[in-house]
Amino acid sequence: MDLPEKLAPIRKGLLEFVILKIVAGDKVYVADMLKLLGPTEFATQEGTLYPLLSKLRREELVDYEWQESDAGPPRKYYKLTAKGRTQLSTLNDYWKDLNRTLADFGN
Amino acid sequence: MQKVVNISLNGIAYQLEEPGYNELRTYLERAEARLADSPDRAEVMADLEQAIGEKCRATLGPHKTVVSAVEISNIIREMGPVEAPDQKAGEGATGGTASPHATASESGFHPRKRLYRIREGQIWAGVCNGIAAYINVDVTWIRLAVALLTLFSWGGLVLVYILMAFIVPYADTAEDRAAAFGMPFNTEELIKSAKKNFEEFGDRYRWRREWRRQQRHWNRQFRHMSEQIRMTTAQAGPAMGHAARFAGGIFVPIAALIGAAVFVVWILALFSLVTQHSIFGWVLPHGMPLWVGILLLVLLYTAVSTPLRAVRRSGQYATGGYHPAWGALHGLLWLGFTVLMFWAAYTLLPGVRELVDQLMWAANLTATTISETIA
């Protein structure tokens, strides 16, 4: 197994974290999320993102509102809920701890 | 020249070249199958349709009204395969090992068979369906046995059923479903076992496969029909949404009524065959054993009820998508109509009354014999 393949599960597991981070800013539309993620290691597609967002919404971590668009039907704009915000800060702390642990092991 | 197909994506009409339409339909059907266990299926499907619709719109202009097959291919590639997020992955950045890899590494592993309730094709709470999967018997037999045992136990079995409906969990993830059927759940294993089955039992199951294929064909045709109905309603504007719901409100009871009528007639025919060796006065041809008659009746019932079910499903699909509430409503109405019709048959038809009284007498006799033996 080569390296990128080995790291794929890590990226996959972190995608949820990344989405929470993106949604924590302004309200976002899925196409904009994809554009943001595109150039990063977390580049993904609608086929993955929509099911994930629906799951996060069911877990009450994100919510959406409909906004009119100038081209076509109204769009769903996602935002973080209070519960999502708590979870995000927990995840942030956890991530820092993980980094510290990794650093403690040296190289 | 290319043939063009009109479709509706989340309520907006588009024109696609036929090969593109076929590709898109395959993509959406596959997506729906992938999400079969997800509680968010309806929502995600609507989101996907809207996203595809938006991409389609981007390819159109004042002098271009049709989305070409190549453009559809590109759009599908952009969308990417639909993946249900792993339910058991937990709260995101935990261990780091994604479970798909864990399951792949154990690819010799057969899940233990477990009793689950199964949603697909359920009439009431999916208990019979689950039992059928568990002991690998056609669900019609289980339902027949339950119906008969309910009569013999003076309705006691209904309590057991309700209890099971509460205790036995639904098979909601791919793993659950695999365990419900005792089947391998990763693709590799599935293909392996399918190959093995094909080699071993190819001939024995051929007729069955053929029948399933026919069922799928019906489902597809009705779905295609309803797709067009849905498109017309979508084009007619939002006011039609209520009309569609209204149509569903009429459609579901009618489907339940017809289904219940067929079921009642079938049960009565079975009873009359078993107790009087004739179906409503029509005596079996000379030399035909009873079990052949019963088998014929069962086949007849399957032949009638399967297209009915297909029509019902496509009807629900046409009137605003399948919703569990419709299924529950249908189950409730079906049960109500069935009880009502049994009661009507019992009070109005002397032959039926005689039959039921005979059965009750036989049941009483059995009960007393059993209790005497025990005492």
Key features?
heterodimer; A: 107 residues; alpha+beta; 3-stranded antiparallel β-sheet; 3 strands; 62% helix; B: 375 residues; mainly alpha; 3-stranded mixed β-sheet; two-stranded antiparallel sheet; 5 strands; 5% strand
Write a structural description.
The complex is a heterodimer of chains A (107) and B (375). By secondary structure, chain A is of the alpha+beta class. Chain A is 62% helix and 13% strand. Chain A has helices spanning 3-24, 30-37, 46-58, 82-104, and strands at 28-29, 62-67, 75-80. A three-stranded antiparallel β-sheet of chain A has the order 1-3-2. In chain A, strand 2 and strand 3 (75-80) form a beta hairpin. Chain A is globular and about 55 Å long. The model of chain A has no long low-confidence stretch (mean pLDDT 86). With 375 residues, chain B is mainly alpha-helical. In chain B, a hairpin with a 2-residue loop joins strand 4 and strand 5 (282-283). In chain B, helix 1 (18-34) packs parallel to helix 3 (69-79), helix 10 (206-235) runs parallel beside helix 12 and helix 11 crosses helix 13. Chain B starts with a strand and ends with a helix. Chain A binds chain B through residues 9-10, 12-14, 16-17, 20, 30-31, 44-48, 50-55, 57-58, 71-73, 75-76, 87, 91, 94-95, 98, and chain B through 10-12, 31, 35, 38-40, 43-44, 47-48, 50-51, 53-54, 57, 78-85, 87, 89, 91-98, 101.
